[in-house]
Each structure stands twice: as structure tokens, then as C-alpha cells.
Amino acid sequence: MGEKRGFLGGNLLLKFFMLVAVLLVISIVVFGIELSIPSLFWTIVKIGVAVALFMLVIKGLESIIRKPRFSPTRRFRDKMIRIATLSKPFNVKQVYLRGEDMRVYSFWGKVAGLAFVPYLAGKLQITKEGKYIYEQKKDRNGKPIYDEEGKPVMVNAKDFLDEKDGDWFIVTERGIPFFKQRDILRCHHSLVSEIGEKIWIKSPNLVPIGDYFYPSQQFQTDIKRVKIQHQAEALIETYEEFLDLVANITQMTLNADPNFQKIQKANIEDIGQEEAGKLVK
Prior knowledge:
It is a single chain. By secondary structure, this protein is an alpha+beta fold. Helix content is 46%, strand content 19%. It has helices at 12-31, 37-65, 72-87, 216-221, 223-256, 258-280; strands at 94-98, 105-118, 134-136, 154-156, 166-174, 181-188, 198-201, 206-209, 212-215. The strands form three sheets. A five-stranded mixed beta sheet has the order 6-5-2-1-7. A hairpin with a 6-residue loop joins strand 1 and strand 2 (105-118). The termini are far apart.
């Protein structure tokens, strides 16, 4: 979601069966294979093996040749997937969606990764009618801030943020080996049961937001906070990328400066002479 896919992106199983079907029709029409059950069966097996090997080779070449563009959201997501995969408890296995009264539930997938992502912004306060509450913005010293016209600057009122407030980051998989569908679920801790062999998400269905799936309640009541969290995560990765670029540019500039090269060479020679003097003593 939100990522450009290559030739083998999307539903691999569907593309596999489509290729097998097309090649089978071509084999019947062009090569005139016998239309008996044993002959068709072995032809399908041979074509299936060939298509599977072909798709594996193409997938490998795509991962080597294609260099993805920098995306702060994708980089954060990939890092969290790795962390969730490594930190998943061995006894956590399945994810289910359920209603409030547990009368209905549905199986979503097997758990391939589990981690906790703390929120960087407090929950926005709302009235009983569902309207946002606003308060005057203050500076670091606690003084109220006004705009150029002397009007108070208003911002959303937020609840106090603690270390327990955040999302469960759940990596799920469905399907057979080599053709698995992977989804990434993010659910506020209040909408997730106690973590055990089965994770129960208290929601009838999930809704896509960016690269993730969220419970429908969270989408409806806390969408603004979710967007702020996504922006904060992207900002962190952008900042790290910017520092790397500055460091690389600075190093390239210094290496291209002849005066810097002379100074560096002189320093190396001085250090070498000092070390040689110590050895003589």
C-alpha cells in the first residue's frame, strides 16, 4: 500500500495461475497436446514448475537491480517490520477480529511480527457531541501566544501523554509458502486484548490508512492523531537521511579541496614521525 510494485507485486498467486492458464492454452493450440486427463495433468505440473522458477528468478533480479527511491514512511515501516519479526513472542500465533459481545469473529491471519510503537502526540480532546476542544497555544515559558493581529493562537487540546499510550504493530501473513499475502496492522492498545496465543482486535473490520490497517473505531474517532503520528515518524527518517546527505557532501567537498589534502597529509606525516620517535626511545 502506498508503494510502487514491480512485475511481481500484488497478488502473486493470481498472477501464477494466470500465467499457467495462458501457457496451457498455448500448449494445447500450438503444440497440440493430447486432451486426456493424465496428459493434461502432467502438462499443468510441468508448466507450473517452470512458471514458479521463472517468477522466483524475476523476483530475485528485481530485488537486486531495482533501487527503491527514498521514502521516509517506507523506511520506518521496514525498520518496524524487522523489529517486530525479531521481537515476536514464540507463543503468539493468530489474529482475530471480533465484535463487542464476542458473538461474531473472523480470522485475519497468522502473526509474523509483533512490536509496540509509542505515540508522540497526545489524544485530541473532544466534547460529548464529538467536537474538538481548542485551547490557546503557549510558548516554552507558559505564556500565551498571539498572532500579528493580536488574536490568540488556538490549537487542539490534548490529553496527557504517557509511555503506555501507543499502537500494537502486528505483521500478519496469509496464504501458502512463496505466495503469502502480508498485511501490517496498527491498533491502539485499548482496542487489543491481552497478548496471548490469539490476539483479539475489538473491531468488526479494519480500514487502510497509508501503509497500515487500523480498526474502524480508531479510524473514525482518532484519525487526526494517527495522521500526526505518521508525520512525526516520516520526519524522524527524513532528519536521519538529511544528516547522512550533509555528512556525505561535506566529506566529498573536503576530499576535493587540495588545501585540505595537504593539511591531512602533513598531519599524517607528523603523527608518523612522533610514533617513530617513541619507538627509538
